[in-house]
Specification:
about 375 residues; alpha/beta; five-stranded mixed β-sheet
């Protein structure tokens, strides 16, 4: 937000908000693969759309400004963004990851980067003393989600960033659940921020995309080289859709959070609910830390029903809330992490970190909260055995 005091204005006017050629208040979709050059040997501003595209560049400038970073990068998916960031490392390097992270992050480390001898270790990043003991000479980064997916675990991001700097390694934060509207890890000292922009930044379940932001010129050069070399870039039309989604991020997320706070209270007080995971509840793990580093608890909730409730019947009985992968859209979505988003994580690992077969993850949308709660109530009632 270099040019704007408040993020609500930066969401709309940040980065490149108008077209330099026509003055259009929305950057156009530059649907082209290549660009005519003025002469042989002359340095062109644009040459090939894998390397750079004006629509994508506007998006990249916007996310860099919103996260207070040096440079932003747009990719074809959140996993493409994470893959590019992990490509910064070399054979023999190791990355420490939070004990509950998105299953795709675990999968790409376990099934892809392992083949290149880039290792990982699953750690409790909330225990900083224990985490520091895991930093051996081969560890080159700590990758954290906070709130983590799907147990909404909170990690002290400033403390992790300081720990990483102390040992000369990188700190990486997946900020998908919060977005820069609620939390800005780079301000807390973090080196790299990644997003599955498919989620809250896009916000309408109509575009798959990923973003990365770095706070160092040398890192920016390295990641730009990887982005251009591997080519997992976001296309101009999807870049346009993502810019459009970001413009309304503030008003949407305010409604998401307002609904989520009411839904969390409803679930916490429900006789059928055994456990609720939501960082905005005063008794939640990491509540005070989250208050320091984020605007509020966000709009994701996970919960468990008591054993005399059948979760298959619960999912089947929902009418308004859709059973689906993903999150962060205007519509409320529910999923079963153990068999959907985190199925790639081995059973014994899921059990160890608390991703039980009874865990339900809920992405609260912007519908009427009365309708959301009524749907949850009737589905819970139908699932009782």
């Amino acid at each position: 937000m270099a040019n704007y005091k408040n993020i609500e204005s930066a969401l709309i006017h940040g980065g490149v908000s108008t077209d330099e050629f026509t003055g259009a208040v929305n950057v156009p979709i530059y649907q082209t693969s290549t660009y005519q050059q003025t002469g042989l040997g002359e340095e062109p501003k644009w040459e090939y759309s894998r390397t750079g595209n004006p629509t994508r560049a506007a998006l990249e400038a916007l996310i860099a400004e919103l996260e207070h970073g040096k440079a932003g990068f747009a990719f074809g998916s959140g996993m493409a963004a994470i893959t590019a960031v992990l490509s910064l490392f070399e054979a023999g390097d190791k990355v420490l990851i939070s004990s509950n992270v998105y299953g795709g992050t675990f999968r790409v480390l376990d099934k892809v980067f392992n083949h290149f001898n880039i290792g990982y270790s699953i750690e409790d990043t909330t225990d900083l003393e224990a985490l520091e003991k895991k930093i051996t000479s081969d560890v080159k980064a700590i990758l954290v989600e906070s709130p983590a997916n799907p147990l909404l675990t909170i990690t002290d991001l400033a403390a992790v960033a300081a720990l990483a700097k102390k040992h000369g390694i990188l700190s990486i934060v997946d900020n998908t659940f919060m977005t820069p509207y609620l939390q800005r890890p780079i301000e807390l000292g973090v080196d790299i921020v990644v997003h599955s922009a498919t989620k809250y930044l896009g916000g309408h379940s109509d575009v798959v995309s990923g973003l990365a932001v770095v706070n160092d010129d040398e890192l920016a050069q390295r990641l730009a080289f990887i982005q251009n070399s591997t080519g997992g870039v976001l296309g101009p039309f999807d870049s346009f859709l993502l810019i459009r989604g970001i413009k309304t991020r503030g008003v949407r997320l305010d409604r998401h959070v307002e609904n989520a706070e009411k839904a969390a209270a409803f679930l916490q007080n429900h006789k059928a609910v055994k456990k609720v995971y939501y960082p905005g509840l005063p008794d939640a793990q990491g509540y005070e830390i989250n208050k320091r580093q984020a605007k509020n608890g966000g709009a994701m909730i996970s919960f468990e029903l008591y054993e005399n409730y059948n979760i298959k019947k619960f999912f089947k009985s929902l009418k308004l809330v859709a059973l689906a992968e993903s999150l962060g859209g205007v519509e409320s979505l529910v999923c079963h992490p153990a068999s959907m988003t985190h199925a790639s994580i081995p059973y014994e690992v899921r059990q160890k970190v608390g991703i039980t077969d009874g865990l339900i993850r809920l992405s609260i949308g912007i519908e009427s909260i009365d309708d959301i709660l009524a749907d949850l109530e009737q589905a819970i009632a139908e699932s009782e055995e």
